[in-house]
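Obj: model holo form, ligand = FE2/S2 (inorganic) cluster.
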Amino acid sequence: MTTDTTQATAEAVRICASEELADGGKGVRREATLGGSEVVVFFVRYDGQPYGYLNRCAHVPMELDWAEGEFFESSGLYLMCATHGAIYAPETGRCVGGPCRGGRLRPVQVEERDTPEGRAVFWLPDGELRPSKP
Ligand code: FES
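Output (holo structure tokens):
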């Protein structure tokens, strides 16, 4: 158990093995808290890079995935909100179509690192958006 978390830098949270995030494929969800509320963040891969966002549509604050972990629309090019079809650029979280226009997803910092168990995807929490304690 680490106790050296007093410094301001975020403690990285392991999300999954790198190979679990396929390009344009299923995302990985992780429970989190934001200002005392229970929320979900999610992680996807696009064009080789991992990205993470708060799972909350910029249109109405609802989760995006129509089925758990299904964030990409059928072309694998955009993240889509299942409720009214808002679409977002996966590399920026900016709304590029639908009722979210002008909005964007709240990004989270993501990093891939080599670990003794292999390469893995990590979340570097920032601000009020924190991982839920198991
Ligand atoms: S809640 Fe996402 S498009 Fe309306």
